[in-house]
Amino acid sequence: MRILLLSAYDAASHQYWRQSLVSQFPEHDFTALTLPARFFSWRIRGNSLTWAYSQRPVLEQGYDLIIATSMTDLSSLKGFVPALVNIPAIVYFHENQFAYPKSGKEFNSVEPQILSLYTALAGDTVVFNTEYNKRTFLQGCQQLLKKLPDQVPKNIIDILTDRSQVIPVPLLPSSFLQNKVTSGKLQIIWNHRWEFDKGPKLLLDAMLYLKQQGVDFTLHVVGECFRQVPEVFTRIKAQLFEHIGVWGYIEDKVQYQQLLQASDIVLSTALHDFQGISVLEAVAAGCLPVVPNRLAYPELFAPEYCYDDNENELANLTTMIITIAKQKEQRNLKLAPCVSHFSWETQRNHYRKLINNSGSKTHLK
């Protein structure tokens, strides 16, 4: 089958999914078009224009199936390139534009939400990585449509619901590693993007409390960072300098995996996560997850690994870490929970069925 794979905002998590998808199905002939993950507002609005007038020969080669990420302006692209209109399309949502926390600095525009709605409607099948992602997208669309002044079709949410399903981003086989149990300090890894929506202020507050309580720990802060880094990271490094281990993004995959294997806890303080691949990878390498009881995390892990995000969130989080620290002191650390159901070995047939069923459809829109 000839498949056109479109990733209009090819961030690290999108690359991870795209590249593994291609590698897992060598029987299909993939042609991938990607655009860099920068200039968000322009990228999501301009990707159809960019591709239609710079990649037209590629787009018109004739395909059996289109697989596009939700950042792709698929409705406009089909309008610009009529050769794509009758090709069945899968739209994959790594995230949605309705469930992002507000920083107070964002450009307040409804356009990203409208575009994601149009892209979902332009696809034949809509796939989400978690139920949380699916639920918040459909709820967000419903709330958005209620705000529009008139002439809003009444069956939009029903159409989207009928064509929606959940298939997670699978973990690569190389993610499943043996944890290297060590004595000594509690090793905590925080492996998220260095942005406000990953909750760095809660990270700082929690680590300062552990420091005050005399907990012997090392903190590794190794997520991806961009040109603008929140000021709180400067404070984390300065106020916790004696507890800092590895600081900054690790380019080398082997070194990163070795750090995961040597860590006891993978910590999330996120205000936004639609699946949490970095946490799942760490757990697959033997880390115990300490994650908030919100977002997609309750789908991924049992309640014992999720701290309550109520008014006592800081206390709930630090209590969980202190308990694990005592278990390590007593050489009684639990094994990490099993996440093998997120492996490609488990998920491959779901993707195969998705591709085969979608590719055999006749486009009837």
TrEMBL record:
The keyword Glycosyltransferase applies. It is an enzyme of class 2 (transferase). Keywords: Glycosyltransferase, Transferase. It holds the Pfam family QTMAN_N. InterPro entries: Glyco_trans_1, GT-like_domain_containing_1, QTMAN_N. Residues 183-308 form the Glycosyl transferase family domain. Transmembrane segments: none annotated. Its EC number is 2.4.1.110. It catalyses: queuosine(34) in tRNA(Asp) + GDP-alpha-D-mannose = O-4''-alpha-D-mannosylqueuosine(34) in tRNA(Asp) + GDP + H(+). It comes from the Bacteria. Residues 2-171 form the tRNA-queuosine alpha-mannosyltransferase N-terminal domain. GO terms for molecular function: tRNA-queuosine(34) beta-mannosyltransferase activity. Belongs to the glycosyltransferase group 1 family. Glycosyltransferase 4 subfamily. This is tRNA-queuosine alpha-mannosyltransferase. It comes from Litorilituus lipolyticus.
